[in-house]
Design a protein that fits this description.
Number of domains: 1
Number of strands: 0
Number of helices: 2
Order of helices and strands: HH
Helix content: over 70%
Oligomer: single chain
Shape: elongated
Radius of gyration: 25 Å
Mean pLDDT: 84
Structural class: mainly alpha
Low-confidence stretches: none
Strand content: under 5%
């Protein structure tokens, strides 16, 4: 099993628990809390998996060194010809 899938599974477990707990505290309904805990985190978990994959692809591109920028020339500074 890939590390991405293991991370996704542990994230899903935590997310289901939080979704159920918060919804139950707000509504007092086990049925509503169960529904919310199953639907919302399931969708979020799938999105998280692809989010991780996208960052894995984009990460190396974002870490490429950039060309250094030239220092600004200030008026009246050295070499201003006064």
């Amino acid at each position: 099993m890939s590390l991405d899938l293991v991370k996704t599974a542990t994230f899903a477990t935590l997310h289901f628990g939080v979704g159920f707990g918060v919804t139950y505290l707000l509504t007092g309904s086990v049925a509503i809390a169960t529904g919310v805990a199953l639907i919302e985190p399931a969708v979020n978990t799938v999105v998280f998996f692809f989010h991780e994959k996208a960052w894995r692809r984009l990460g190396p591109r974002l870490r490429r060194p950039r060309a250094p920028e030239a220092a600004p020339v200030l008026a009246g500074g050295p070499g201003a010809g006064s």
